[in-house]
């Protein structure tokens, strides 16, 4: 099970942390001719080797790496501007199925719920990683449906402030859920609502209110679900 967790961690790091926006834009523009597509695949393979640190898994790593390339290639070839959201989620689901499927086929005897003691630390790190930039990118993909500039007039704001606020609030919610401090989760939601009330009242825009409300519920909802999954998995550690 430790191997599977490390493979998932390699995927998160490779797809979200070590893939600059410029790489994504070049891949979308040049598709299979983009060198970044091949570098991106190489990064994934290198990460799996680094995290597993065991050459006996070379076949598993290479198969996942090749399948990752194929999935990305199909995504770049098929997606259009209007279908980017669909292919983003389809791409991520296929990558996860590939990791689980390949591992279960090559190592069927290792699929069990008996975690090693130090799996706790990796599970915690995996949850924290997911709740940071990956979740921010997922939310950006969701919100790409709406053009915020058309919803509210342009105002001065700190660069990337929303991203960091979202990361911090999700991490706090995750910690509170793990610690069974549901009152603190409610307090955090209330506090954010109070801070945003003035802006929403001043804007007097229903669309802006709905935009902020959807974003808050999605962000908090994802953090709560990850926290509950983490607690459930602890039963098998």
From TrEMBL:
InterPro entries, per the entry: Phage_phiKZ_Orf197
Pfam families for the chain: DUF3307
Official protein name in the record: DUF3307 domain-containing protein
Keywords: Membrane, Transmembrane, Transmembrane helix
Entry's transmembrane regions: 58-74, 86-107, 119-143, 211-234
